Structure to design on (840 residues):
């Protein structure tokens, strides 16, 4: 008993010391909730607020043409012919370190400043630090506002928290999430349409509007702009240049037939495989488009991948499995790992993963040359690259908070900020002039080490952007992504399960469309 | 004689070999973590058991990354300030602080409830216990939103007192972003109540009768007789509860907004990005966070082993 009593005594003393030393962080919200969300405020009409901070870097030369063009209107794009980088020296030191970021200015809220909570899902440590740094810059230049970026976990966790916050009416003022997630929040009636802010003569986008392609970077629901992205990434095919060369291929496969020929030559299971397949809706949609499929109806109300292109895509996946050219990695990011280890010739992933591929290859016992290319297409088809990434929206609050949140969003879209953001995230800026500037950067002038290591691939990816195309953005589509992934897994592995029954490509496409359409029709009910 | 001795030695050798193999199996994840924490990214994710180059700088990097890429700095004039300046320490403090209070709460409520269900006779006792057990089957995810709503309804005691007595004009503050939300909802555990109830039922009635004859009340019997006999159950419940708190991620994310209020798991999650995981830094961060617990365990090892072995509990 003496031990228990001593333990209790120590616990109480510790608690007292702890409470005294570490008072709960500020910013609790008022309780209980007493009012419904404020109605959307009218566009701001007060005097313009200073939003820009002095540029942090010298203007970049703008010698390359704009990198973003309207999607789906160009002639078929051939495979890139830009020379891949050569292999790094075998003994290259490979210590992936966090990007050195200068300490933030530790800006504190000015008395009476309007507090703006910005919830986001960017879990990468460098992204967290950069977002805080940008908020500090904004707060220093706009002392009447105080923006607080708050990490709320990954996208799924942020969605869960936001849904709980909507129920409890304990909302942030800004939110970053998948476009479909913003649509979900909009369906709950808590989002602010941005159209009036965009067009506002004083605080609107102004000249910035001409720099942003709304088709690719705005998220529109019911003809209202709910989200704007300050950077997106694209789906690309990573390939081992040396492995292809050793098999007699000087360039990446542009078509599915060429891809198969490479696979036949390089696959030597269980040591070497052609393609590490990670089932996912983005990969399937991209492959479907490249075979001439539509994936979804034009009004985004139905899935249509049970047509010829979708079935052909699944048949191709089945062939990859049957011939043992491909496998599904067991671990998360296992495809990156196996690629870095020289076990696989191709993977498919986001360009946001470029720095991870770089470190994986560089630190390999046998470093090799690698590069990226668009996913293969039909012989007479057109290449598309799936363009995705988070968007930012405003949550209904008070007119002052909404205005501050809008000004911060506008600040994030400015050229200098976009240039910096692109280097930290390897995203492609929404701001065309920023994209041009980053695309024209001399590698030797890049201070961000992680970005400097992949700038050649980043520039190559920029050339794919004119073929950018977005998956359906309607909120319901976010909820059906697992169905598409399950369909791919069932066909590839030939195993039925509770999540998906059919394993034959045609039957699986039919079941997949039925399941997706059912889920779409039931979404929100 | 020699043959018997040889047989005995072989038997001992075999037993030790089996135990060594078991120990190696248990130790392997720890060794993997330790070695992974000093590898390069590529080595940590691919081949090789022993690091080619021992990168001790990963530890410093992990601390810096967790701190928003700002190095932790110690100020001798204000030593406690490092808890706010260095997020790793803050995360660690929060986790231990919350864990200890949750353990204290769970032990208090579970011992009392367990004793009531085991020793007191009152109408509807079994029905109530059955209902309590049924709540074990409700998935945690299902209760997230309702519990979150409760957290926004409740006011902190200090803000309530300040408002009631006119000491502050700030108004009521809810539990979001406070230790209340991290501690209070977990201070009762059905599993622990069940554990204690079963344990208390195993204590001989003769002891209770003897205590009654000596004029002891229920609370005296519980405090002076039952609890000293219940060390194994107390240790088991405390360990499981503390581990649950240590590993919690979703709930702390849900009810906190400031990094200064978040636990260690949130800090470690920052090494997992949308496009890849910095495995070597994750391992270094995990090692740093596990280290104090391991040291604590080594100090209290005898007590823990005694408690667990006397309960016949095996890991």
């Amino acid at each position: 008993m003496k031990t228990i009593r001593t333990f209790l005594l120590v616990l109480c003393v510790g608690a007292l010391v702890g409470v005294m030393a570490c008072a709960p962080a500020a910013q609790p919200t008022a309780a209980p909730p007493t009012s419904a969300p404020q109605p959307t405020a009218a566009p701001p009409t007060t005097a313009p607020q200073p939003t820009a901070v002095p540029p942090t870097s010298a203007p970049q030369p703008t010698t390359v043409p704009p990198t973003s063009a309207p999607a789906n209107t160009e002639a078929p794009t051939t495979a890139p012919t830009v020379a891949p980088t050569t292999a790094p020296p075998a003994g290259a030191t490979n210590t992936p370190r966090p990007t050195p970021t200068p300490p933030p200015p530790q800006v504190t809220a000015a008395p009476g400043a309007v507090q703006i909570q910005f919830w986001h899902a960017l879990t990468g440590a460098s992204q967290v630090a950069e977002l805080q740094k940008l908020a500090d810059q904004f707060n220093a230049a706009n002392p009447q506002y105080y923006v607080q970026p708050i990490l709320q976990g990954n996208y799924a966790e942020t969605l869960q928290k936001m849904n709980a916050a909507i129920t409890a009416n304990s909302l942030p003022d800004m939110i970053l999430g998948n476009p479909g997630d913003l649509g979900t929040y909009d369906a709950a009636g808590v989002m602010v349409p941005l159209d009036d802010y965009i067009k506002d003569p004083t605080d609107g986008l102004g000249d910035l509007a001409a720099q942003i392609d709304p088709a690719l970077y705005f998220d529109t629901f019911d003809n209202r702009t709910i989200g704007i992205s300050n950077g997106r990434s694209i789906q690309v095919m990573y390939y081992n240049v040396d492995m292809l060369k050793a098999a007699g291929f000087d360039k990446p496969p542009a078509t599915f037939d060429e891809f198969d020929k490479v696979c036949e030559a390089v696959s030597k299971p269980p040591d070497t495989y052609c393609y590490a397949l990670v089932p996912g809706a983005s990969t399937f949609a991209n492959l479907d488009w490249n075979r001439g499929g539509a994936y979804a109806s034009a009004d985004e109300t139905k899935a249509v991948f049970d047509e010829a292109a979708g079935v052909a895509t699944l048949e191709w996946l089945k062939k990859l499995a049957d011939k043992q050219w491909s496998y599904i990695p067991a671990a998360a990011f296992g495809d990156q790992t196996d690629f870095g280890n020289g076990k696989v010739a191709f993977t498919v992933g986001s360009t946001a993963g470029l720095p991870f591929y770089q470190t994986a290859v560089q630190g390999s016992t046998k470093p090799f040359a690698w590069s990226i290319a668009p996913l293969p297409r039909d012989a007479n088809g057109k290449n598309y690259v799936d363009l995705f990434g988070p968007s930012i929206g405003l949550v209904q609050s008070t007119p002052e908070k909404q205005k501050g949140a809008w000004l911060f969003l506008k600040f994030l879209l400015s050229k200098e900020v976009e240039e910096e953001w692109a280097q930290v995230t390897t995203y492609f800026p929404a701001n065309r002039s920023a994209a041009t500037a980053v695309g024209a950067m001399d590698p030797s002038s890049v201070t961000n080490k992680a970005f400097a290591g992949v700038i050649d691939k980043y520039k190559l990816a920029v050339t794919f952007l004119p073929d950018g195309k977005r998956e359906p953005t309607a909120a319901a589509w976010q909820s059906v992504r697992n169905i598409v992934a399950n369909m791919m897994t069932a066909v590839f592995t030939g195993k039925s399960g509770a999540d998906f029954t059919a394993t034959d490509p045609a039957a699986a496409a039919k079941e997949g469309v039925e399941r997706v359409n059912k889920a779409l029709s039931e979404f929100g009910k | 004689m020699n043959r018997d001795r040889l047989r005995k030695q072989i038997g001992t050798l075999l037993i030790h070999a089996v135990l060594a193999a078991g120990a190696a199996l248990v130790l392997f994840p720890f060794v993997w973590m330790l070695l992974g924490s000093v590898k390069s990214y590529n080595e940590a994710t691919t081949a090789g058991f022993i690091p080619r180059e021992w990168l001790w700088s990963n530890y410093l990097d992990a601390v810096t990354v967790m701190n928003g890429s700002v190095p932790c700095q110690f100020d001798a004039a204000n030593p406690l300030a490092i808890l706010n300046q260095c997020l790793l320490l803050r995360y660690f403090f929060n986790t231990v602080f919350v864990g200890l209070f949750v353990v204290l709460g769970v032990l208090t409520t579970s011992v009392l409830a367990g004793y009531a269900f085991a020793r007191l006779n009152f109408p509807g006792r079994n029905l109530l216990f059955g209902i309590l057990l049924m709540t074990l089957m409700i998935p945690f995810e299902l209760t997230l939103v309702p519990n979150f709503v409760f957290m926004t309804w409740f006011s902190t005691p200090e803000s309530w007192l300040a408002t009631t007595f006119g000491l502050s004009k700030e108004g009521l503050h809810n539990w979001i972003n406070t230790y209340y939300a991290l501690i209070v909802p977990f201070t009762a555990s059905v599993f622990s109540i069940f554990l204690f109830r079963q344990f208390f039922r195993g204590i001989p009635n003769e002891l209770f009768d003897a205590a009654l004859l000596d004029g002891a009340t229920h609370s005296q019997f519980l405090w002076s007789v039952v609890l000293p006999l219940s060390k194994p159950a107390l240790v088991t419940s405390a360990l499981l509860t503390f581990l649950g708190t240590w590993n919690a991620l979703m709930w702390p994310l849900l009810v906190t907004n400031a990094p200064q209020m978040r636990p260690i798991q949130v800090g470690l999650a920052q090494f997992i990005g949308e496009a890849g995981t910095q495995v070597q830094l994750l391992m270094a961060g995990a090692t740093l966070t596990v280290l104090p617990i391991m040291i604590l365990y080594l100090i209290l090892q005898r007590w823990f082993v005694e408690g667990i072995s006397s309960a016949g509990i095996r890991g």
About this structure: The radius of gyration of chain A is 25 Å. Chain A touches chain B through 76 residues (CB under 8 Å).
